[in-house]
């Protein structure tokens, strides 16, 4: 079985991802990807 990939997200990047998720006009595919990263 494959091992997971891990990476570090900076505070600025994390804030930007939260903004993408919260914005009502964000594309759904961007929101979906941002949520995966924020898990």
Order of helices and strands: HH
Percent of residues in helical segments?
A: 55-70%
How many strand units? 0
Low-pLDDT ranges: none
> What structural category characterises the helix and strand content?
mainly alpha
How many domains would you count in the coordinates?
1
Q: Strand portion, in percent?
A: under 5%
**N-C termini distance:** 21 Å
Rounded to an integer in angstroms, the radius of gyration calculated over CA atoms is 12 Å
Q: For the residues shown, what is the average pLDDT?
A: 95
**Biggest sheet record:** none
Give the overall form.
Answer: flat
The count of helical stretches stands at 2
List keywords for this structure.
single chain; mainly alpha; 39 residues; flat; 2 helices
Protein architecture, described:
This protein has 39 residues and is an all-alpha fold. It has one domain. It has 2 helices and no strands. Helix 1 (11-22) packs across helix 2 (28-38). The chain starts with 10 loop residues before the first helix and ends with a helix.
In short:
The protein has helices at 11-22, 28-38.
Task: Please write out the topology.
Elements: H1 11-22, H2 28-38
């Amino acid at each position: 079985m494959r091992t997971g990939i891990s990476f570090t997200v900076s505070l600025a990047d994390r804030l930007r991802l939260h903004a993408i998720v919260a914005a009502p006009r964000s594309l759904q595919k961007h929101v979906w990807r941002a949520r995966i990263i924020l898990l």
